[in-house]
Amino acid sequence: MIESLGLTKTFSEFTAVKDLSFKVEPGEIYGLLGPNGSGKSTTMKMLLGLLRPTSGTARIAGHDIINDVVAAKRVMGYVPEEPVLPERLTGWEFINYVADIWRMPRGSQRQQDIEELLTLLDISDASNDLIETYSKGMSRKISLVAALVHRPKILILDEVQAGIDPRGAATIKEILNGLRSKGATILMSTHILEIAEELCVRIGIIKDGSMIAEGTMDELRMMAEGQRNLEEIFLALTGGPDMQRIAQYLRGSGESS
Amino acid sequence: MTSDVLTLLKLDLRQSFRPSSVKGKRSEKRSSFRRLIPLVALGSFVIGISLIIVLVGPRIWSYVEGAVISDPGLGATIFNAIVLFAFLSSIMVSATTVGNSAKMEYLLVMPVSMRSIFLEKTVLVVLYNSILWLTIGIPIFVGFSLISAARLALLSAPLFVFMTLMLVSLGVSLGGLIGLIFTRLLAGRRALKQVGYFVLSGGAIIFSAYWYYSIYYGDSGGQVFEWLINLARSLGFSSNITPGYAASVLSLGLLVGLPLTVQDIVLALAFALSSFALLRANSILSERAHYSGWLAVGSKRSSKKLVPVLHPMWAPRAIPIAATNTTIGVSIWYNITSVRREARVLSQYLLGPVRIVIWIVLPIFAVGEQSLVLTPYLLAVALIPFAISYGVYFAGYEIVYEGKNLMNLQLAAANMEDYVKGKIYSALPFTLGATVVFSIIIAFLSQSMLIYLPAIAASSLFVTLASGAIAANAAAIGGDFKAERMILRQRGSAAQMPIRGWSILRAQFAPMLLGFGGVSLMLAVGFFFNPLFTYLVLPVFSIVCLQIMKTYAHGAGVKLAQIEATKYL
Ligand SMILES: Nc1ncnc2c1ncn2[C@@H]1O[C@H](COP(=O)(O)OP(=O)(O)O)[C@@H](O)[C@H]1O
Ligand SMILES: [Mg+2]
After folding, report:
1. pLDDT tens digits for range B409-440
2. Both B493 and B354 in a single domain?
3. Does one domain contain both B445 and B515?
4. Does a structural domain hold residue B333?
5. Total structural domains in chain B?
6. Residues with Cβ < 8 Å from A37, sequence gap 6 or more?
7. Is the pLDDT of residue B3 over 90?
8. B448: contact with A, CB 8 A cutoff
9. Res B367: pLDDT
């Protein structure tokens, strides 16, 4: 279980996350939505113990992320928004390195697991190439393998679907659904609202570091009356495009030849 | 084209020397005071030198004047050295710039020709490489030109600036061209290229070490540059047609009032023109390299194969003593693998200490014959800088270069103390290698030392362990975790230490003290009493080193585990 208890993070004078509280239960996929710069990644990094909250705290499977951070980390897997990969290792080496760091016992079981994940995500072919040759989507896939290799109970995925091909995205969806039904706790952020709508049990929308709406799709629909799908709800709550400005711009750009 | 280059240059220089911190959430809040420190230091340096010249100038002026007039080759040699230094330090500059052009995608999409961009980057390197010479030279020339009675003396300072820029341009663009041509020849051959990088940078290190050596060795009886001059003469340098000679007659010559011939001026102009031409050639070749992609990272990846990739069972080899602990084992493997795959870094690491050894050991040689008594001792302690440096590089620097990878370690809640130990252990094979080489040298040169050999070899391994831990701890305190490993990848070629401030001093001097102190003590009791005593001191010294390693590896581990992500992301 993930419990965020009034998480707040201030960078010099700027407060990126303000008093954010929410809960993600086991067997639940929770979608964190919000415009760019609203504080999703910062929140996740605090939950992971990478950034120290300015105030507030969080509990991960009951472990406090300030006082008991090591125990908290042990149960989490994370795919960062910008995957952090050593360029001069091959994909295969990197995954094994990560597995070693997590103290997964070496041997054929682990070997099989990794091969399976690589094949599932269609990156087995590239697993012997240096990571510096990987495309963005491949980097994200290898990063997902690294997050899954130690079989975490809690997954934190920061825009994991960005830049992934349709087959990969569908695979990821199936994997996440499967893990959820086995009782995993999954917190994910995404800008692809269809995915959020399909996958997430509950959704939290944050803006400027504060939660502005939270609930199941039905609850959100009630909140933003008259809006049908998640995109309409999202735009109604966070502000849609500035039609007047757009019209003005289009007028100014004249006839295109 | 020129205006493009100037615009780009302005942009880059403004980024480097921005006077006060910019506003914005993401920008680092460095106080304007700290930003000013380098400028203040530079300023006081220039003022200091000017003052010295003004104070002692009149007294030494006649000597300087006499030296310059009696031997025009002297100035030429010094100026040619500028070309050589610029050349040596920029062999791979252009190739690296092109190879990393993905990092300046934002520039490449601008409506500016590619070659202007590459030209600007080269000019930037020229400026960075000139700063040192200009800060030393300008006050000297200004000071002396005020004293000199020569009619055109005042012209010498601006001409010196112009000539220095020309000399550095020559060196940098030649070096850049060589690097580009070299990578062209080896395009697509990854392994060969790595070997080539290793040989080239190894060669540069050995050469510069030899250079220091010769400066020292000639330094008796006021023949500072005699060896250089002889060598240069035998190579055809410091005759009348080198760039250094042209720079010398136009700057030093004017300063002391030597007659200026038409040939000299023509020569200088010719060199200036060829430096422009070379800079241009460099940028054109860089552009070609970029478009043809011979510097792009080679990928063997082909479209979907039917045969699945097979992997052998994962069990990377590690050093036996550490094989029991996975974290230590994988840390050793990671460290050696990532260093090994950057051939230039490997050769910097392995051969870098040669330079330190030269600086430390040879001044004593220069004292004279009586130092021959000390030769065996010197040979023995010459191993110490290697033992220290390997510890400092492999544990101290490499911890810093983990950079963003620290995130993976922190998330896994890896035992950082073990991880640090792995890094330290990964230096051992290299120290062992150096020990073997030195043992062979000692066996040939000084049999009397053979009896101490095992003690020296063993203690150098322990020194590596202690130095590594001290450096790792210093790195955990003062490391710049956003630094990039490749010195050349950084803007310009100004090398920046991955560890900052007091921490770098601690990382380097504490191990020196320990290494030289300990080994000297061990040898001293052996020399003065009985070699047996050396072997009595050895265990004590080893235990001290191990204790130091334990303490500092633990300290480093604790600090690294607590670093906040803003430090490295
Ligand atoms: N290390 C940092 N220093 C200063 N500001 C930061 C830092 N990290 C994030 N921010 C700021 O915090 C805000 C939230 O960022 P982030 O959490 O990455 O947003 P999101 O992931 O929702 O797009 C942004 O305005 C960003 O500029
Ligand atoms: Mg984000």
Report:
1. 998 888 999 999 999 999 999 999 999 888 88
2. yes
3. yes
4. yes
5. 2
6. none
7. no
8. no
9. 55
Query: Does residue B333 share a domain with residue B254?
Result: no
* A37 Cα: distance to centroid of ligand 1 (angstroms): 6
CA nearest ligand 1 atom 4, residue: B26
Contact present, B197 and B347 (Cβ < 8 Å): yes
pLDDT digits (tens, 9 = 90+) for B98-144: 877 766 777 777 777 888 888 988 998 898 889 888 888 888 888 88
Q: Tell which of A42, A97, A157 to mutate to test the B interface (max B CBs under 10 Å).
A: A97
Q: Are B448 and B344 contained in the same domain?
A: yes
Q: Annotate A133-148 with DSSP letters as a single string.
A: G--HHHHHHHHHHHHH
Q: Which domains does chain A have, with CATH numbers?
A: 2-75+152-256 (3.40.50.300)
Partners of residue A74 in chain B, C-beta under 8 Å: 413
Claim to verify: residue B395 and residue B341 sit in the same structural domain: yes
Q: Kindly report, residue by residue over B481-497, the tens digit of the pLDDT.
A: 877 665 444 333 334 57
Structure tokens at B127: 């400026």
Task: Report the alpha-carbon distance of residue A229 to residue A219 in Å, rounded.
Answer: 12
**CB within 8 Å: A50 and B338:** no
Asked whether the beta carbons of residue A100 and residue B301 sit closer than 8 angstroms, the reply is no
Q: Is the pTM of this model over 0.80?
A: no
Closest CA of chain A from B106, distance in Å: 17
Dihedral (CA of A126, A132, A133, A134) sign: positive
Last residue of a domain, one of B249, B270, B292: B292
Residues of chain B with C-beta less than 8 angstroms from the C-beta of A146: 408
CA geometry: angle B145, B148, B152, nearest 5 deg: 70
Ligand 2 centroid to residue B415 C-alpha, Å: 28
B334–A contact, CB cutoff 8 A:
yes
Contact status, residue B135 vs residue B312, Cβ threshold 8 Å: no
Distance between CA B336 and CA B472 in Å, rounded? 16
Q: What is the dihedral of CA A137, A140, A142, A148, to 10 degrees?
A: -140
Nearest residue (by CA) to ligand 1, atom 6, is B26
Structural domain harbouring B453: 326-567
- Do B111 and B228 belong to one domain? yes
Do residues B387 and B261 both lie within one domain?
A: no
**End-of-domain residue from the set B292, B310, B343:** B292
Ion ligand 2: residues, Cβ under 5 Å: A 40-41, 81
Q: How far is the CA of A40 from the centre of ligand 2 (A)?
A: 5
Give yes or no: residues B175 and B282 share one domain.
yes
Question: Does residue B95 fall inside a structural domain?
Answer: yes
Q: Is residue B444 part of a domain?
A: yes
Q: How close, in Å, is residue A102 to chain B by CA atoms?
A: 5
CA distance A135 to B151: 65
Q: Which residue's CA lies nearest to atom 19 of ligand 1?
A: A37
